[in-house]
Amino acid sequence: MDTPVTSPSPICGDDAAMPLLLKRGERFLEPDVYRTCMDGQPAVVKDYTRYRGTPLSLLARVLVHHEAHMLQRLSGWKHAPALLGTIGGLALGMEFIPGQTLSTAQAVGGEVFEQLQQALDRLHAAGITHNDLHGTNVVVSGGVPVLLDFTSAWRTPRWLRRNPISRQLSRSDLKNLVKMRQRLTGQRPSDALAARVADPGWVAAIRQGWKRFYAWAKQPR
Asked: How far from chain centre, in Å, is Cα 66?
C-alpha cells in the first residue's frame, strides 16, 4: 500500500517547491530523479512512471517496493535517508540529504571513511549488503556519510549469511570502500583489512576465466 503523500509545499522554500530534475533516466529501468517537497520537507523522488502501461511496469513496481522496504528497515539510521512514501506504486520519495558526494569531493577526511566502514560493518551484521557502493551513492552531510540508492541492496536470511555468495557481496562492498578511501585520502588498507577484501580462490578463478573468454570472443573470426 502506498504511503500517503502531500502535494509540494512552499514550506520547503521557493527554490525547492517546484520539482527540479537531478537526473534523467536513460538506461534500462533507470528512474528519473528529481528534487521536490513531500510533507513539507525537501525530498528526492525516484520516478519510474514512464513505464506505466508497459511490460516493464511490474518490474518497476518491484524495484520501488524493494527499495522502500529496505529504507523502512533502516528507519532512524543516520547513514541512510528516511523513507517519505511511495506514489502510485511507481515512484519512491525519500529524505533529501544536502552535502557533497564522494565522486565530486576533492578531499575527504579519514574520519569520514572510518564512519563509513563502521556503517558497512553494521549493515553487514544485519545481513544487508549495498551492492552498488561507489562515489555517487555516498553523500557526506555535516561530516556524516550517508548511503544512497538501495535498489540493489539485499538482505540475506540469518541462516544463509555465512554462505560464499553472501560473504563475497560483503567483501565487494568493503573493497569499493577501500578504493574510494585510497583515491581520496591516499591511505592504503591495513594488512587486516586487505586480507578481508582479498578475493578467495574460487572468485579469482571465475574472474580470470571470464577475462580469457572475453579476450577470445573479441578475436576476429
From this structure: 12
C-alpha cell of residue 47: 520516478
| Domains identified in the chain, total number | 2
Q: What is the pTM of this model?
A: 0.86
Report if residue 168 sits inside a domain.
yes
pLDDT digits (tens, 9 = 90+) for 113-171: 999 999 999 999 999 999 999 999 999 999 999 999 999 999 999 898 889 999 999 99
**Do 119 and 138 belong to one domain?**
yes
Domain limits for position 163: 100-206
CA-angle at 219, arms to 217 and 220, nearest 5° = 120
DSSP state, residue 27? S
- Rounded to whole angstroms, the Cα distance separating 44 from 37 reads 8
Question: pLDDT value at position 4?
Answer: 39
Strands (E), 48-141: 83-87, 91-95, 100-101, 128-129, 138-141
Largest separation between any pair of C-alpha atoms in the chain: 64
pLDDT of residue 7: 36
